[in-house]
Amino acid sequence: MVKAHIVNHTHWDREWYFTSADALVLSEQLFTEVIEELQKHPEANFVLDGQLSILDDYVALYPEKLADIQQLIADKQLFIGPWFTQTDAFFAHGESILRNAMIGIFDSKKYGDYMKIGYLPDTFGFNAQMPTLLAHVGFDNIIFWRGIHLGEQVQSTYFKWNGLGDAAQIYAINMPQGYGTGMLLEPTSAYVDGRLDPAIDFIAKYSQTKEVLIPSGNDQLNIIFNFADKLAEINKMGRHSYELSTYQDFMEYVKALPDLETFRGEFRSPVLARVHKTIGSSRMNIKLKSAELEQKLLNRIEPLLVIAKASGIHISERLLMHTWKKLLEGQAHDSLAGCVSDPVAEDILHRMKEADELCDSIENTIVKKIADDLSLTSNEILIFNTELSTFAGYKEIQVVTKNKQIHFPEYPDAMIIHEQYISARDNVLEETPAGNRFIEEPGYYVLQVKIKVELPGLGYRVISFEETELDLESMMQHTTAEISNAHYKITFQNGTIALETASGEKQTSFIRLEDSANAGDTYDYSPLTGDIARTFTFTKAIAERSSKLERLILTGKNRLPFDLDDRVQAGKQGDLAVKMVLELGVESELLTCELEVDNQIKSHRLRILVDTGVQTATNIASLPYGYIERKSGVPANWQETYSEMPIDIEPLEQSVTLTNEMKSCTIFTRGIKEYQQIEDKLALTLLATTGQLGKPDIAYRPGRASGDTTKKGHVLIATEGAQLIGKHKFSLAIYLGAEAFEATKTARRTKEFNQTTIAYQSQAFNHFLHRLDNKIQKTERRLGVARTMEILNLPKDYLISACYPSYYEANKYIIRIENPTSTPQKIESAHIGNGSFELINAVEEIILAKEIVIPAYDAVTLRILL
């Protein structure tokens, strides 16, 4: 006889094929019934899906129920948190996963205690650093379902899971039959004999324990009424012992088990449940915008808020959290994955649009207030450095001026890399103290200027320009379709992009675009029988050169089959137009590649293929605070074991590398989240468009359609919006070196690729280059800021993962230093804020330590006094 711990819960998708508004209407009824049932039955308990956002939505409707909710939590009847939303674990940045927990925990405290469990019941697999991330928010455990291969990765459903390093180890509870294992809990022989007892037998077979966990709940499922009475009846009928339990109680049982096995690695194996291995390219517009916002928040807004705090500008941390929430609502597993209906996708993108606007407004407010306090003239530029060490190199700044005859006295090598002329306007209203008048507004230039400058760590400085008689250097067209610097030479000839490195290595077909049919759905790509992949052809090339920069601009428009039916038999055609800009800076090791794709065809997959020239059987992809090595290839006879093909299409956080002892090639991406190694080539998916939410019997995923679309009474759902008709922009960079992969250098190149420039000019030509310029009013109170500010200047070998204001201490800020290598790294206390800091975890709990050492593949968090 096995003792079954039965936990009553609901899994609450905030949105899926239904919208968050739909879910709110459902919760208004259901959550009220949950509260009433718990109050009626003090012995009962209920888990509210481990995400706080759904409770916040409910309490916004029923603020008068806050006291009841607080009491139920205090009585350990209602369990909430710790997440803000049920996060995706592959396509969200590691810092976003941390923010999800940090904000969920921060906001949970208004209700009471939160569930200290990394509870992610439906996420589509887990990156290998989840133990490390969970340890940073104070958790020593996880409860999950998808991605595990029992019998191969681990033998038992209960085990210890290590991060890539040895510092983070958590207890893991797998739900091999999902979070609906014991749903409904009917005291009938059909339920007990047909569902409950077989599930207990299955789990006990693998766990080899005397007690097992049985989650009882499902999607949008209500509390089980009269739980104790039903359980008493079941105990009279079944072969096992059944008791009402909690996740916390069962976790304590697991922690006490002797000789738990240990696992290190990721859970991405589709054995007992699908993980949708090709979902990394579904609805790429959502993934691209999510990644763009992550970098904007991490590299611009959060460090700027620290600079603002040091400057005496008060902007609440709650506004920062509010902005993150808009993004995090779109990083739930279904939302960020993209397996949602069109109305939901529109909602996600609208929330991200709001987050983008909040970011811009916060930045605009900070930079303008500092500029106003400095009384900058129109020929002065305020340039910020959001890195935590001195910056020396090139920045691209915006300059607005009446002509191009300018120069920067301290920076003689400045040059124009892009220009726009705005023509004069007549009858423009000018408001003056003497009254209104109409004038002619003169024309002006908006220039993008590349300038080599040195900037203080986490601060800013003011630079100036003057009028002169000569034009500033600018890009000039060149007749030969090639670009080069000390590291690479790129040529375009007869439709082919070729590469030659400084060491003489040559690739005659270095970069190409490949288009093929996609017979899949929003969950998975699927090849189409009889389809032949087509190579995209560029037809025009323009080379631009200057002393600091060379640029190769390739364009083409190809006629391709319009839809799936047109792929196999010649039919209707549509246009696929692509502009590719390859750029080499004079000193840069990175070849940057910007693509603009105008997609006017349906149900296809577009990939960029890079011929690395590196012979290797494995690849190395980035993940939070480290890198993971994967093998390419698919097991033979996979149908015998797997619920979907374990295709070797894999996720990356920001880079993927092929390497051997002699050389390496790394591709850095912004929002491109899916790659495949094909011998010595890397294929990155740009688009995988589709017109269906879920389809049955696709090539990589036989059987039922994913989602609810093949349940009784359900219908297939068209997703015309997932065809992504229109323009999309992609950004990546390529590094090739005559040496093996090295983690620290790769991480630094990632930082270089994501380097950002924040600059501001007080100019009167256009008040809408920054949207709030004409609404942010000058105040009488002076900040007294200096023309140069430096808050923190760390050694350049410290890799900074985050810098943001403290959530809990008004006069302090947080930095997180990562170590993506296999060797622990010691941090010298004298380098950190004159020693005025505390070692904490991500939720700002004090950690006592005599010295600061970053373990392998890990990070440390410090709270510093301003």
Automatic annotation (TrEMBL):
UniProt record, GO biological process: mannose metabolic process; oligosaccharide catabolic process
InterPro entries: Gal_mutarotase_sf_dom, Glyco_hydro/deAcase_b/a-brl, Glyco_hydro_38_cen, Glyco_hydro_38_cen_sf, Glyco_hydro_38_N, Glyco_hydro_38_N_sf, Glyco_hydro_57/38_cen_sf
UniProt entry keywords in alphabetical sequence: Glycosidase, Hydrolase, Metal-binding
CDD domains reported in the protein's UniProt record: GH38N_AMII_EcMngB_like
Top-level division of the source organism's lineage: Bacteria
Domain Glycoside hydrolase family 38 central: residue ranges: 274-352
GO MF term (any one): carbohydrate binding
Similarity remark: Belongs to the glycosyl hydrolase 38 family.
Record-given protein name: Alpha-mannosidase
UniProt organism field: Listeria grandensis
